[in-house]
Amino acid sequence: MQFLHLTGMNKKLLLLISFTIILLSPAFGQLKKVYAYKQASLPGIQPRVTTEEGGGNKQRAERKETFNYWFYISFSKKEKITVTGLWISGKRFTVKSEPITELPVKKINYTAASANDTITMVPFTRNAVMLTYPSGMANDTTPVSKYLLNLVNHNELVIVYFWKGKKYYAVKKMISTLAPEAHP
Fold first, then answer.
1. Which range among 18-22, 61-65, 84-88, 102-106 shows the weakest confidence by mean pLDDT?
2. Distances (CA, A) of 114 to 19, 42, 88, 106
3. 9-26 confidence digits (pLDDT tens)
4. 76: which DSSP letter?
5. What Å distances lie between residue 183 and 63, 90, 180, CA to CA?
6. What average pLDDT does this structure show over 118-137?
7. Where do the H-state alpha helices sit in 30-174?
8. CB–CB of 169/160 below 8 Å?
9. How far apart are CA 52 and CA 28, in angstroms?
C-alpha cells in the first residue's frame, strides 16, 4: 500500500480546500436549483410616422426589445427562503415571489405552426419551488459590495435572498431563451 506524500505546500492547499468546502457547504445547501427563462415580447407593427392633432407628422421613437422573465428556485421544504432582489443583465430590479404548488411547471408556447411547443420549465421535484420575477426597476441607490458587483458583471442573473437571517446570492451565467410567441 502506497501512502500519499504531501509537501508543506500541498498540505496547506489541501487544508485550504477542505476549509473552503466546509465553510461554503451551508451556502450551497439551501437552494437546490435555479431555473431561469426569458422570452422576447414582440410588439405589433407600428408606423414609423404618426399624424398628430392638427395634421402634423411626428417621427415615432424606435421600440426596444423587452422580455418576460420566469425564475424558479427549488429548495428544501424544511427551509424558509426570502428573495429580496434581482440583477438581470447588470440592472437591479425589485422582486415579487409566489409559491408553486403544482409540478411540473409547463408552458405552452404558441407558434405560427399547426403544433404548439410545450416546454417543461420545472420538472417534478419533492422540493419546494418558488416563482420569482422582476416587478420594476429598483430605485435604491445603496452601494453594492465588490463581491456582488463581480457577480453582476459575470452573470446574466443574480438572485439576492435571505436564508436563516443571512444574505446569499444565486447566479445563472445565462438565462435560457424561449422562442417568441405568435399571437393571433
1. 18-22
2. 56, 20, 34, 19
3. 566 655 556 555 444 444
4. -
5. 18, 30, 9
6. 93
7. 146-154
8. yes
9. 57
Looking up cell 457547504 gives 25
Report pLDDT digits (tens) over 67-77.
899 999 999 99
Cα gap 70→75, rounded to integer Å: 16
**Contact residues for 41 (Cβ-Cβ < 8 A; gap 6+):** 65, 66, 67, 68, 180
Integer Cα distance of 91 and 138 in angstroms: 8
Give residue-wise pLDDT tens across range 23-45.
Answer: 444 444 478 899 999 998 766 66
HEC assignment per residue over 119-140: EEEECCCCCEEEEEEEEEECCC
Q: Which of 176, 45, 42 is nearest to 110 (CA)?
A: 42
> How many residues comprise the chain?
184
